[in-house]
Design a protein that fits this description.
By secondary structure, this protein is an alpha/beta fold. Helix content is 44%, strand content 11%. The strands form 3 sheets. Strands 3-4-5-6-7-8-9-10 form an 8-stranded parallel β-barrel, surrounded by 8 helices. Strands 12-11-13-14-15 form a 5-stranded parallel beta sheet, with helices on both faces. Strands 1-2 form a two-stranded antiparallel sheet. Helix 12 links the parallel strand 9 and strand 10. It is globular.
């Protein structure tokens, strides 16, 4: 048998690629776009294409072998997965989430999931899910020694844990039961402002080590920080800070360092930003390995990571696009080496998911595992110099944030002082501006909206705020909320008046000249629920709207824009937009790529008499 070389020279037949030659070719492209000139030095070309993430991690235009740090799968710091090369890959844990308040409905849904691809169950209990008293009914058909169960009960974590442990003991499954009791007092404080008990979490961990060896007790949940608009590094840093606080509490309760590490599972959000999500999971293992190193822990303390598709990225409008978002996120979770993955149903923002939505969420993972064979490759991102560099940069940024939290007295103190909230709020405002300017596009919402869509109806999900009492903790944001609020105003206006708000697109010149900008303007206005009608400026008087937008090329604007604006004003226009950046007599302002679309749409709805 021929043994292949350790390194395949796949590019041996091609001429050598030189960085300066690449820069010269890129410079030629940038010169044509006006971003560079003949005098621009070659060593500045890459900088013209570079950018930074919300964490300040540089995103370069080109990565090479020099950007790939050494490392192998299965070895600390576990960046390249916990599983070593050559190990048989069974795949990750397909973890389906349930939050229906009716235990009988949950019981049927749980059974359907476990019979059709799910390998573990995540139960939301308490005020935002099923009553704790219904736990036994919901799990009546579940073999606890085969299907791991993860609890998420918030303020009722202790009560839910006791109920589950009693059920396991009653069935005689104590030695074989697996899953996680979901104790996360710091995550509770982050979400609700309610003080959680580290002592209670530690006591549960001690019981698990003593009586339920296959069960974990504690979750270090990073999703509250993601859901508040935080960056990847901010989520990671806070999650690691929570993990360190739990390590201290568990060892103080009598567990060894190794036992304490074995009781903690991380929960992190993955989004449609594929590479950032992959890097986040890889960086999480890197960070936790560093904590293990300074704690004097032995081998086998790699972070166990439960990846959940982002709630913040999900939309109410055009919710079917959420299937695509969650597919990308699930792929990133698998490629990033997640131990367990939860795909949220596409209708999660509309209420309780129906059977179809849960089936699609489940089958998304089945496709990745069984048809794409994603889990059969150890560390798929390991060959990407970009992924390696992004992982390291993200880990460094997260560690810096973690140390800042520690200097503030730990995560509990940082939450109480407002340090965490202030940092997340600043990041959210930056992201919010990018969304408003459509630099971070949301398909079906800020781009390519469907004003004729009929949203599916869903049963409302239980909410902790149903009693009318204010809740503390970090805010919960969704990326689409500003655009969706404008769509809601448009819907209310249409229901009250029988017609949607409308803007007239005054097109100048031949179709080939004005189509590009007319299409751009129509797409922008529709993102705010404003329909458009196009025609020559002379047709404005019969359009039934007081707002117009002139659309054509810069050349035509120079010849006709001022006259067109005057014609529109004479016909009763109270606002005249112009599709483009130029300033022309009679036009109030321009709409263009990078403009503040939210501001444009709010102004337009106001001019159209649409109430807030």
């Amino acid at each position: 048998m021929t043994v292949p070389p350790e390194e395949l020279e796949l590019a041996a037949a091609f001429p050598p690629a030189e960085r300066d030659r690449w820069r010269e070719m890129v410079k030629g492209v940038l010169r044509r776009s006006g971003a560079a000139t003949e005098d621009t030095p070659l060593d500045e070309i890459e900088g013209l294409l570079a950018r930074e993430s919300y964490d300040g991690v540089p995103i370069a235009a080109l990565y090479t072998r020099d950007d790939a740090p050494p490392g192998r799968p299965g070895l600390a710091p576990y960046v390249r997965e916990v599983r070593p090369d050559g190990e048989g890959i069974a795949g990750w844990d397909v973890r389906q989430r349930h939050a229906h308040p009716d235990p009988a409905v949950t019981r049927a849904a749980v059974l359907a999931d476990l019979e059709n691809g799910a390998t573990s169950i995540w139960l939301r209990l308490g005020d935002t899910g099923m009553p704790v008293a219904g736990l036994a009914e919901a799990l009546r058909d579940v073999l606890l020694d085969l299907a791991p169960v993860v609890l998420d009960a918030g303020e009722r974590a202790g009560e839910a844990a006791e109920a589950f442990l009693a059920l396991a003991a009653e069935r005689g499954n104590a030695p074989d039961v697996s899953g996680n009791l979901g104790a996360d007092p710091l995550g509770l404080a982050a979400r609700t402002g309610a003080p959680g008990s580290l002592d209670e979490a530690a006591a549960l961990a001690v019981r698990c080590v003593r009586d339920f060896p296959g069960l974990r007790a504690v979750v270090a949940d990073g999703t509250p920080y993601h859901d508040a608009g935080g960056s990847d590094a901010e989520e990671l840093g806070a999650a690691v800070a929570a993990g360190v606080a739990y390590l201290r509490a568990l060892t103080a309760a009598g567990l060894s360092v190794a036992e304490a590490f074995g009781q903690i599972e991380f929960r992190l959000a993955v989004s449609a930003d594929q590479f950032s999500s992959i890097a986040k999971l890889r960086a999480a293992r890197r960070l936790w390995a560093r904590v293990a190193e300074v704690s004097g822990a032995s081998e086998g303390t790699a972070a166990r990571v439960h990846a959940v598709t982002s709630s913040a990225m999900m939309t109410r409008r055009d919710p079917w696009v959420n299937m695509l978002r969650t597919t990308i996120a699930a792929f990133a979770a698998g490629a990033g080496g997640a131990d367990a993955v939860t795909v949220q149903p596409f209708d999660a923002r509309l209420g309780l998911p129906d059977d179809f939505a849960r089936r699609i969420a489940r089958n998304t993972q089945t496709l990745l595992l069984e048809e794409s064979s994603l889990a059969r490759v150890v560390d798929p991102a390991g060959g990407s110099w970009y992924a390696e560099s992004l992982t390291e940069g993200l880990a460094q940024a997260a560690w810096t944030w973690f140390t800042e939290i520690e200097k503030a007295g730990g995560l509990a103190a940082a939450l109480d002082s407002g340090l965490v909230a202030g940092r997340l709020a600043a990041t959210w405002e930056r992201r919010r501006r990018d969304i408003a300017r459509r630099k971070a596009p949301l398909t079906g919402v800020s781009e390519y909206p469907n004003l004729a869509e009929a949203l599916p109806e869903r049963e409302p999900a239980p909410s902790a705020a149903d009693d009318g009492e204010p809740r503390g903790g970090l805010p919960v944001v969704t990326y689409a909320r500003d655009f969706e609020a404008l769509r809601d105003r448009s819907d209310a206006h249409a229901e009250a008046t029988g017609a949607r708000p409308r803007v007239f697109l005054a097109t100048l010149g031949p179709v080939a000249v004005h189509t590009a900008r007319a299409s751009f303007a129509a797409n922008l206005f529709q993102a705010g629920g404003i329909e458009t009608v196009a025609g020559a400026p002379e047709e404005f008087g019969t359009s039934g709207t007081p707002v117009a937008c002139i659309c054509s090329s810069d050349k035509v604007y120079g010849e006709q824009a001022a006259d067109a604006a005057r014609l529109l004003r004479d016909a009763g226009a109270v606002k005249v937009w112009l599709a483009g950046k130029g300033t022309y007599e009679g036009a109030d302002a321009g709409v263009y790529a990078g403009c503040d679309a939210i501001e444009v749409l709010e102004t337009t709805l106001h001019d159209l008499g649409v109430s807030e």
